[in-house]
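Hello support,

Our group uses your service weekly, and this is the first time we've seen a run hang past the timeout. The protein is Alpha-MPP. I'm not sure whether the cause is the sequence or the server load. Input pasted verbatim:
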Amino acid sequence: MLSVTSGRAAARKVLGMNIRGLASQPSLDVEFPGMPELTPASNKTKPETKVTTLPNGLRVASEETFGQVTALGMFVDAGSRYETDANNGVSHLMEHMAFKSTENRSHLRLVRDIEDIGGQMAAASAREFMIFQGECLRDYVENAVDILSDTIVRPKLAPWDIDEQRKVIGYDLENMEANAQSVLTELLHEAAYGSETPLGRSLWCPERNLSKLGEDDLRAYLQTHFTAPRMVLSAAGVEHDRLVDLASKYFEDLPTKPANGVDPITETAKYRGGERRQSADSPLTHVTLVFDAGGWKSDDLVDVCTLHMLLGGGGSFSAGGPGKGMYSRLYTNVLIKHQWVDSATAFNCMYNDGGLLGIYGTCAPQDAGRLVDVMAGELLDAASKAPTAEETERAKNQLKSSVLMKLESRQVLFEDIGRQILTYGKHESAADLCKRIDAVTPETLQKAAQKCLKSAATIASFGDVSAVPSYDAVANKFK
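Update from on-call engineer: The timeout came from a worker crash unrelated to the input. Re-ran successfully.
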């Protein structure tokens, strides 16, 4: 057994060794050889969005973030609103065909090339745009742009890839029935605009078209909509001049006009209101109550977005806490006072020439009637009197913080740049947007609510809908 005396001696020996070791290390004020010189962030150029239009019409936009990872993507002015009943679902199929076989790469090689650079690539389709996006280390931006150009400009559209993706979409459609929110989104657009109209047409490929759509449909859609003037290459975390050079190199083959020489057009969205309900085996009844909100280019856009924050809401089982919107109206007036409400959340859907603002709620089937009454009451209350100055200021601050916090993400930043340029032809800075939010007043919020409620109501429900009131009963509340 070690004695106390010998133990102390051993400790002194170890301590002495450590002290001698520390004494041999260089001082902290001595530069370590081979390390790059650090530049304080305050000495760097203030990040700004730069936009360049190439001779073929492709717009290239970026913002430097001074990080080691780059997020980038190609936005295309396409999507389900540019489809017809005959090819409805072609953009959904096009999304699934992204990053498959190309003229230069097999699917296996393309996947290997993405993994070799540690990259992540994906595609998505929406009602008014498609996006092919990626993320990679800054050193491999050229590889990522090369891969993007291959899948966008030179897709092979091989029969075996199409057959495989038809099966995948088929599985998605089967599983969609279990996703109440996805079903409701389609139902409310169909009810608000009409199933035969651009914004009312299904975002998902319908069963009737799944087996019909093939290479010819995909190729025709590409040749019509994938032209340089309808596209924006956006990035966050890259030098702008370098991105422009890469775009010129890899996207110079993009056509400037559709193959048939006729630019695609779509009819203007016309909100009309209405009802759609779908019975399903669900423990909860899901209901949305929405109105016309104008869209991205509406003069009331910022007021509508602030009104959205003021209504707020969430789920009854939220952990709560600061920043959770616990002082929003749907929390204080609905979730806290009505324990039978499972969730009540304000939401909006915005488009170039149309938009929706409303409330999405869930409850037990027998309470669906009461839920619709409560939701309607909150919307009517927002239009009947102006909110207090304190409530307005809180909603404005929440909107500004939401915008600024999200823009700290390079993924959100590059998407914000691309979407704005595709929609407006320019990019508005966060500072300018915050100034517009500061200009919102209680009176402008009330006017925005009143304007929305002048339109016809739209109701969509899913689950056990037997207790959901008739459309006329709900619409009469707003007359």
